[in-house]
Amino acid sequence: MQSILGNIRYGLRQLRNAPTFTVVAVLTLALGVGANTAIFSVVQAVLLHPAGISQPERVVSLHARYTQLNLPSIGVSVPDFEDAQSLTGLVDSAAISQPGSFNMTTSSGTEHLQSTAVSRDWFRVFGAQPILGRTFSPEEDQKGANYVAILSYAAWQRIFGGQPDAIGKSMMMDGQTYRVVGVMRSDFDWPRGRDVWVPVGLAPEDYAPSNRFSEGYDSAVRLKPGVSVAQFNAALAQKRMEEVRREGSHGFAETGGWSMFAQPWTKDAAGDLRKPLLALFIVVAAILLIACANVAGLLLARTATRMRELAIRTALGASMFQITSQFLIETLLLAAGAAIIAVLTGPLIGRLLLLAIPDHLADGFVVQSNPRLVAATIGFSLLAALLAGIIPAIQVARIQRIGEFGRSVTDSASRQRLRTILVSTEIALAFILLTGTGMFLMSLRQLQHVDPGFRPENVLAGSVTLTATDYRDNSVKQAAFVRDVLSRIQHQPGVASAAASSFVPFSGLCCWSSSFMIQEKPLQVGEAGPHADNQTASPGYLATMQIPLMRGRWFTEADRADTPPVAVIDDVFARAYFPGQNPIGSHLRWAMGPKPVFREIVGVVGHVRRDSLEVDENKGVVYMPFEQQPTPMATFVVRTKGNPQVFQSSLINTVRSVDSTVAIFNVEPLSSLVSQSLGARQLLVWLLSLFGGLALLLAAIGIYGLLSYTTSQRSAEIGIRMAMGAQRWQIARLIVKDMLAMVGAGLGVGIVVVVLMQKLLAHTFAGVGGGILPSLIIAAAGLLAAASLAVALPARKSASVDPAVVLRAE
C-alpha cells in the first residue's frame, strides 16, 4: 500500500512539473470520457432505466403477430392478456390498457385530455406510487363502476393548480362525472403524454374466446425476480397453443401465422430513438479511442524526455514492474482528472442532448445523475487509462529490457513508428465518422424528397373525439357533427377545400386493421384471409390531400348511410389482391358489426405512406365513406390558399361554434407532421456532425502534436540539410510528406472499413448506403484541410531553423 501511495505522490509531482502536458492530456481524455458519459446518460434514461419505473429490466410488453398477414407486432386481445396473467409462477403482476381521450368541460370552456384506460395493476407493474391519494381498487375496475380518475402530475398542476385538496374533487369528462382518487409522480408518464388514467372496467364477456383475435389493447407484465424474457416467452407459447386448441380457433391461428410474444418494455418505450442512440454510442466509443490514441502519443513523446530519469531509477534497482506500474498510475491519475470533469459535465450535456431531441420522441424521459452513471463514468475512465497507457507502458518495459535507458534522448525509429501508427489510427477513425456523417446527411436529404403520396403543403389538420354521451354509439349524430363543421369551414375566406377522415397520415393516430373477404374470390381451405388497413373519409378528402385517382371514382355526397355501401382501395391493395385485373365492381366484406355487408369497389387511388418516409409498410388501404361508416374520432384537413397556420384559430372556433363541448386538438400544419417523422434521423445527423467535428479536431491535434515533436527531434538533421544547401521549401516539404503519409495510411484503412460497413448501415437505417463516393470525397477533403492546418506551424518552424545555431547546440 505504501508503495502504491508513494507512486501516486511521485506521479502527482511529475504531472505538476509538466503542466502543459497534464492539462492537454486531461482535457483530451475528458472529451472522450465526457462524450461517452453524456450519451450514456441519455441511453440510460431512454433504453435502460426510464424514469418512474422500478426495476425496468423485469417489465415486458405483450404483442401478437400474424406472420402470414404481414403484421409483425400489434396489440393483444383480452383473452391474450388473461393467458399471460394466468402464468402465476412467472408473473408478478400484469395489466392491460387502451389509449383514449376525453373532452373535459369546465367553467372556462372545453379542454382535450389524453387518457389511458388501465386495469387496476397497471401502476403496480411499473412500481409507480402516487404522490397524492391512491391507485384503483378492484371494485373500481369494473364496468359501470369505473368513473374514477388518476391525474398526471402536469394535469394536476394545470387543472387544480397543484392543490392537495384535488383528491375527491370531480371532473366532467365526456359528459360523465369522474372523481379524482390519485395524482402520480412527475417522473411517471407511461404511456407517454397521458393526462389522466381511468379504470378499463372489462366486462366478463370481454374474456370470451370469440374475442381472441380482437387485438385492441396494450399489455405490460412484471416478471418475477430471476425470470427471463425467454422463459416467459416459452411458457407463453405453450399456454397459447393449449388455449387456442381448447377454443377451437387453431385453424385461423395457423393459417394466419398467429402467435404471442413478449419483449422488454424499454424496447417499446424507446421507439424511434433506439437505433439512433445505439449508433451514437458506437460513435462516442470511436471518439474515446481517438482521444486515447492522442494521449498515448503524448505519453510516448514524454517517455523520450524522461530517459535520464528512468535510467537513474533502473540503476537504483527499480524493476520492470515498478517502472511500468509508475507509468500506468500516472495515466490513471490523468484519467481520474478526466472522470471528475466528465461526472460534473456529462449529465449536463446529456440533458442538453435530450432537449435537442424532438418533443414527440423525448417526452417522458429524464436524464438523472445517479450511482449507475457515476459507475459508468469511472468505467469509461479506467478503460481510457488502459487504452492510453498500455502501449507506452509496454514500450517502456521493452526499452528497459534491452537496456536503452540513458543512451540517447533522441527518439528511436520503433517509437516514432508507433506514434505514427497511433495518429494514422486517429485519422482512420475520424475519416470513418466523417464519411458516415456524410452518408446519413445525404440519406436525410433523399428522405426529405420522398413522395408520401399526398401534398402536405398548405394543409392544416386538427382532430376531435366524439365520445361524449350524446355521440357515443350514435353514428347519425357523429356524421352530422362532421358534416356541419365541414360546411362552415368550406365557406370561409382563404379555404381552398376541406374534408374529414378517421385519421390522417403522419398524425400519430392510426387507422384500424382487419381481415376481410372478397366475394368473387372465396378462400381455399387452409388459406389465410387477406388483411388491410381501413379508413373512412369524406367526399372532399381526395382533393384536399391531392391523392391521385387512378381508376373509377371517389366518394360523392350521394354516398350516404341509406345508399348501397361502397369502398375505394389504393393501388397497393389492387396489386396484391387483383393482380392484372380490374377491381372495379368487386365486393369486399368485413366480419365486424352486427350485420356485415358487402361493399362494392368503385375506385382505385394512389398509395399513401402512413407514418414514415423511411420505411413504407406497403400495406393496402380500404377507404369507406364517412357517412356510411362514422367513427368516434375525426380529423379535419383544410387546404388553404396561404399559410395554414393563420387558419388555426378559425378551425378551433368553427368546431367550438358547432358544439362547445367538443375540443379540437393537435392542430398543426400537415407539412410539420411529415417533417416530424424524420425527427430521429435529423437528430442523428446533427449529433453525428457534432461528434464528427470533434473527431476531426482530435485528429488534427494528433497530427500537430506528432509533427511538432518529430520536427524538434529532427532539428539536427534539418540543420545539416540546410547547411548543405537545402532550401526552406524543401525542408517544409519533408514535414508535409510525413503528414501525407500518415493521412494516406489513415484514409486507406478508413475506406476499406467504410466499404465493409456500407451494407450493414443500409440494412439498419433506411436510405443509408447510397452516395458513398461523394461522402468519401468530402470526408477526405475535410481531413486533408484539417491536416494542412495542423502541419502549417511545424512546417514553418522547421523551415525557419538556423543551421548555425542548431549545429553549435549539437
TrEMBL record:
Q: Where in the cell is it found?
A: Cell membrane
Q: What is its main location?
A: membrane
The record's Gene Ontology cellular component field reads: plasma membrane
Which segments cross the bilayer?
21-47, 277-301, 327-353, 373-397, 418-442, 683-707, 739-760, 772-793
Q: Answer yes or no on keyword Transcription.
A: no
**What membrane topology term does the record carry?**
Multi-pass membrane protein
Query: Which superkingdom heads the taxonomic lineage of this protein's source?
Result: Bacteria
| All copies of domain MacB-like periplasmic core, residue ranges | 22-238, 488-639
Name the InterPro entries on file.
Answer: ABC3_permease_C (IPR003838), ADOP (IPR017800), MacB_PCD (IPR025857), Macrolide_Exporter_MacB (IPR050250)
Keywords in alphabetical order: Cell membrane, Membrane, Transmembrane, Transmembrane helix
Q: Name one GO molecular function term.
A: transmembrane transporter activity
All copies of the ABC3 transporter permease C-terminal domain together span 282-400, 690-802
Which family does the record assign?
Belongs to the ABC-4 integral membrane protein family.
Query: What is the recorded name of this protein?
Result: Permease
Q: What species is this protein from? A: Edaphobacter dinghuensis
